Amino acid sequence: MQNIVILTGAGISAESGLKTFRAEDGLWENHPVEEVATPEGFARDPDLVQRFYDERRMRVLAAQPNPAHEALGRLERELGDRLLIVTQNIDDLHERGGAGRVLHMHGEVLSAWCQRCDARHRWERSLRDGPSCPSCEMVSLRPDIVWFGEMPYQMGRIFGALEQADLFVSIGTSGAVYPAAAFVQHARDARARTLELNLERSAGSALFDETRLGPASKLVPQFVQ
Ligand code: BJW
After folding, report:
1. Quick one: pLDDT band at residue 145, thresholds 50, 70, 90?
2. Residue 48 contacts by C-beta under 8 Å, 6 or more apart in sequence?
3. What number is the ipTM of this complex?
4. Looking at residues 80-91, what average pLDDT do you find?
5. Catalytic residue among 69, 106, 121, 186, which?
6. Where does NAD(+) bind (predicted)?
7. Is 45 assigned to a binding site?
């Protein structure tokens, strides 16, 4: 039995109706990245950033997992702790697709983080109206999201799993953002086989042993079979 690490990006949720970032009609088109996805942007205009994530939160709550998420849920039931899903996505579609062991390296939009007491709370409503933290009652909640310049979550566990991996699969990510873009090289260093499933070749495509091109809702169920 082999250890598998799967990295997912916005492409796996595209067919659930959630926009990717870097496509022509993507999320960054109307929102300059430095305004909405940096701590400096949040300090400058918290209302704009909260509004951006309020809208994303509503869209995630309305979205449904697609056959790609569901296939990974089935794979996890089969492989148990030999499978680790690492997602850059802030939605909860892997979990609703049946996967329980998911590391959200860029945070979760359905979580609010208190900058005062460090507590995290599941959050489904707006953060714009200045709600107070249920733990310390201070008004200092922000979206529990990893912005540019901040340290992604769970890096120790992720690098540990990559060192033990026999197979690394990257699904629906452009390979434009580090450190996730470097995982394929870590997996290669650990002598894992590397496979890319994507609509089009990613930035690091040459580093993969194999690339299969097509929509995730087709390629992922085929891979899992
Ligand atoms: C389909 C499909 C379908 C479409 N089926 N596929 C040089 C070297 C190293 C680092 C840096 C560097 N220069 C700058 C940095 C740092 C920076 C960085 O990487 N910048 C780049 C722009 C160069 N990184 C950071 O700041 C990170 N922190 C950090 O590095 O800390 C220091 C550190 C050092 C060492 C170890 C550890 C840490 C933090 C990055 C935080 C990223 N945050 C964001 C926004 C917040 C989340 C949110 O709002 O949702 O995360 S940015 C955005 O990009 C989001 C995504 O998770 C991330 C990746 O995007 P993704 O998922 O790849 O989406 P797209 O749109 O780019 O691609 C979609 C893909 O899907 C495409 O390929 C399509 O083809 C495909 N697709 N439909 C299958 N149906």
Report:
1. very high
2. 35, 36, 41
3. 0.95
4. 98
5. 106
6. 9-28, 88-91, 172-174, 198-200, 216
7. no
Closest Cα to atom 24 of ligand 1: 178
Distance 134 CA to ligand 1 centre (A): 31
Q: What's the token pair of residue 80?
A: 């148990």
The amino acid at 175: G
DSSP string, the chain: ---EEEEE-THHHHTTT---SSSTTSHHHHS-HHHHSSHHHHHH-HHHHHHHHHHHHHHHHH----HHHHHHHHHHHHHGGGEEEEE---S-HHHHTT---EEETTEEEEEEEETTT--EEE--S-STT-PPPTTT--S-EEEEE--TTSPPTTHHHHHHHHHT-SEEEEES--S-STTGGGHHHHHHHTT-EEEEEESS--TTGGGSSEEEES-HHHHHHHHH-
Q: Per the annotation, does 28 bind a ligand?
A: yes
User: Active site includes 106?
Assistant: yes
The model's pLDDT over 167-201, given as tens digits with 9 standing for 90+, comes to: 999 999 999 999 999 999 999 999 999 999 999 99
Give the chain's domains with CATH numbers. 1-17+65-106+152-225 (3.40.50.1220), 19-62+109-145 (3.30.1600.10)
What is the tens place of the pLDDT at every residue in 5-41? Answer: 999 999 999 999 999 999 888 888 888 888 999 999 9
pLDDT in tens, 102-114: 999 999 999 999 9
Q: How many CB atoms lie within 10 A of CB 204?
A: 19
